[in-house]
Design goal:
6 helices; Regulator of G-protein Signalling 4, domain 2; RGS domain-containing protein; RGS_sf; 166 residues; RGS; RGS_subdomain_2; mainly alpha; two-stranded antiparallel sheet
């Protein structure tokens, strides 16, 4: 029975040993594909962690009409990082800032009429705890599931095209 790799949703074989019907070349192909998947993941993460590479990736995404995915991913990274303060006065200010940032992300990328709406499932969209009020405590991980879905889209489509481009 196949398993799904958690980060890339690729179906991988459960067993590492060949079955009687599996030829050596197909086993080598499976091993090569697993290595390629890992290498692709590493390369994509390297792009997302390098400012210059992100700039080139963003220019490519603009040409491909998919820049909203990268912008959303970057905004959620900033939102999730947030500031953590132990001082009570700063905590209130931090929460107000978090509410404003969460609203910005929601109405820019998630909302049904968002100007840069990202392609996520209705289920993920519904799972985002919305609306939030000014006095709500905002969870910094509220967009994590949507961010992961967008990450997979970028890695599976935009990044492949980016790597193949001149």
């Amino acid at each position: 029975m196949p398993i799904i790799s958690p980060r890339n949703s690729t179906i991988l074989p459960r067993s590492n040993s060949p079955t009687p019907n599996t030829s050596t070349s197909s086993l080598q192909s499976i091993i090569h594909n697993q290595k390629e998947i890992q290498d692709s993941e590493t390369r994509f993460q390297a792009v997302l962690s390098n400012t210059l590479a992100i700039n080139y990736f963003q220019k490519f995404a603009i040409k491909e009409y998919s820049v909203e995915n990268l912008l959303f991913w970057l905004d959620v990274e900033l939102f999730a990082a947030g500031n953590s303060c132990d001082i009570e006065d700063n905590y209130f200010e931090e929460q107000q800032t978090a509410v404003i940032h969460a609203r910005y992300i929601y109405y820019t990328y998630i909302y049904s009429d968002a100007p840069l709406q990202v392609n996520i499932s209705d289920e993920i969209r519904r799972d985002i705890n919305w609306p939030i009020d000014d006095d709500d405590v905002v969870e910094r991980n509220m967009f994590d599931e949507a961010q992961e879905a967008v990450y997979q889209l970028m890695k599976g489509y935009t990044f492949i095209g980016f790597e193949d481009s001149p």
